[in-house]
Amino acid sequence: MTASARPEYGVLAHEFVTLAGDFGHRIEPELCLDIARLAAAMECIDRHVDDVACDASRTALWTSIFALLARGEVDLGLPLATHASRDELHGAVQRVRDLAVRRGVLPRMLRIVKKEIATSEALRHTRDARVYVRAVVREGRLTAALALVVAGRACGPAFRRFFFRLGGPANVVDKLNDASADHSRGEIRVDPGLGLRARLAVAIALALPALFAAHPRKARIVDLGVRYLRRR
Asked: Whole-prediction pTM value?
């Protein structure tokens, strides 16, 4: 996670419909909106959590966020700077909860979010480049899993497998560009030098054959990669 907006959430919302269409799935407008709402809310939550540098305060905030998401409790305990921040964060968590309840997927979403919290903190604390890269891939897959849970039966198994696999390397590209800035802000402890960048690049290369094999339009993968890199 970074203190700036995480682009993978925007990619998640923007690309989901197009990629699903390549597999013959027509995504209804309301589902498109829900995926966009999910992406915007999760980006907001991440941004506020990343603003909390103290480990103990951030852990307390995560605990409060999870309680609100799970049970609708309203006291976030909030080590945040302003009441406006509290209101914005509370609203974002409530929107995720409302969406999950409406679609009947709250228990599954809670399991994913719990894993995301643990993965996020692992990324912050590890100094081992191998552990960091594995956690980056896991974080990306969990982000993709959130969208797939919301989509439910609107998507078939072939697309679900592809999109889940895509989440990992998409997040790796993000970290490849952002690791140095994340380190300078104190958000990660791993050395962001050439060793880490090489491992991230290898992770992308290793993921590509499976993505090409799983997608019916190979050119789409190339186009997606080029456009994502240009956004950086």
From this structure: 0.88
Of the options 1.10.10, 3.40.50, 3.30.70, 1.10.600, the CATH number for the domain spanning 7-231: 1.10.600
> Which amino acid is located at 34 in the chain?
D
DSSP string, the chain: --SS--HHHHHHHHHHHHHHHHTTPPPPHHHHHHHHHHHHHHHHHHHHHHT---HHHHHHHHHHHHHHHHH---------S-HHHHHHHHHHHHHHHHHHHHTT-HHHHHHHHHHHHHHHHHHHH---HHHHHHHHHHHHHHHHHHHHHHHGGGS-HHHHHHHHHHHHHHHHHHHHHHHHHHHHTTS--S--SHHHHHHHHHHHHHHHHHHHHH-S-HHHHHHHHHHHHHH-
Residue 125: pLDDT over 90: yes
pLDDT given for residue 74 in this prediction: 59
User: Which tens digits make up the pLDDT trace of 36-93?
Assistant: 999 999 999 998 898 888 899 899 889 889 999 998 865 555 555 456 688 899 899 9
Mean pLDDT of 152-179: 92
* 68, 97 contact by CB (below 8 A): yes
Tell me the torsion sign for CA atoms 53, 55, 56, 58. Answer: positive
Cα–Cα–Cα angle for 177, 178, 182, nearest 5°?
160
Task: Give the HSE-up count for residue 215: Cα atoms under 13 Å, Cβ half-sphere.
Answer: 24
* Digit-coded pLDDT (tens) for 127-142: 999 999 999 999 999 9
